Amino acid sequence: MAGYKHLYGPVPSRRLGRSLGIDMAPMKTCCLDCIYCQLGRTTVHTAERKEYVKVDEMLAELEQWLESGKEADWLTFSASGEPTLNSELADAMVRAREMSDIPVALLTNGALLWRKGVRDGAMQADLIMPSLDAGTEETLQRINRPVPEITLDRYIEGLHETVVAFHGEVWLEVMLVAGVNDSEEELAALDDAIKHIRPDQVQINTVVRPALSGEAERVDNATLVHARVILGPKATVISSAWEGAAVPEDAEHDEAEVLALVSYRPCTLHDVVHGIGMHPNEALKYLQHLVSEQTLRMEVRDGETFYVRAQ
Ligand code: SF4
């Protein structure tokens, strides 16, 4: 988003509607290195907590954004890396909530919630959205490639303790990758883990955006439906919630905003239109220009055209 270093969007989130992303860690600073990551390989693979993004600086941007009169359904603490690595995350969420009526969501990989300090900080959100993609240690290592101190037992216990202690809802996302965690055995093991964790919702997803590594392929629709049956009554397959929504009439957007959104993650034209609130013709004009100057490239995946930041 033009002029902001730590805010992006509002991004059309499949789970939250219009989500204003708040970046709490630098690009690819993460305790995992998932094979499906849209941002490529993890460059800073760490479990060390620090104030990676200065909270005062981020809040000054948020104040400016709120004063501009724009709207979002959620303030989503997230990152181009892992937000719980920011040691001041709790303070940031508390202070952000005091600035508006917009609820605060924490989008995290959840892999550090076994640490009490991380878990206590996460409790400051209104909604916690962690992930779990593996029911066996072997698959955790294969799909998420964690730092050494993260084991599956710790991961699952941290999620369980979070659900027990948290006042709000916990929505657990499971990302299915073809040939990696979609077998009967793996789904059964995931089901056992989820029964222990007891989240409020289980949201089944698959790879729909190009993973920069090219290692991860989506599962087919039949597998998604099968996984929903195995993972129980709280499980849903999450789909494009903004599909078919009216195009908002808004103005004052420019190419820099389009570039900022696409730089954060690969987007379709539809994502840009609804994420920024831009007329499709205008969005297409900027996208085509950015492609022509090789700032973006186009990538077709499952019949959909994504715009991706050129490396
Ligand atoms: S946890 Fe998120 S940011 Fe980290 S490697 Fe996995 S997908 Fe990428």
Task: Sum this structure up briefly.
By secondary structure, the protein is of the alpha/beta class. The protein is built from ten helices and twelve strands.
Can you characterise this structure?
The protein is of the alpha/beta class. It has two domains: 7-241, Alpha-Beta Barrel (TIM Barrel); 245-311, Winged helix-like DNA-binding domain superfamily/Winged helix DNA-binding domain (Arc Repressor Mutant, subunit A), CATH 1.10.10.10. The chain is built from ten helices and twelve strands. An eight-stranded mixed β-sheet has the order 1-2-5-6-7-8-9-10. A two-stranded parallel ribbon has the order 3-4. Strand 9 (201-206), helix 7 (221-230) and strand 10 form a beta-alpha-beta unit. Helix 9 (269-277) crosses helix 10. The two termini are 19 Å apart. The protein binds iron/sulfur cluster (SF4). Iron/sulfur cluster (SF4) is lined by residues 30, 32-34, 37, 39, 42, 81-82, 109.
Q: Strand arrangement, largest sheet?
A: 1-2-5-6-7-8-9-10
Mean pLDDT: 87
Helix-strand category: alpha/beta
Number of extended strands: 12
Multimeric state:
single chain
Bound molecules: iron/sulfur cluster
Rg is: 19 Å
The CATH homologous superfamily of the largest domain: Aldolase class I
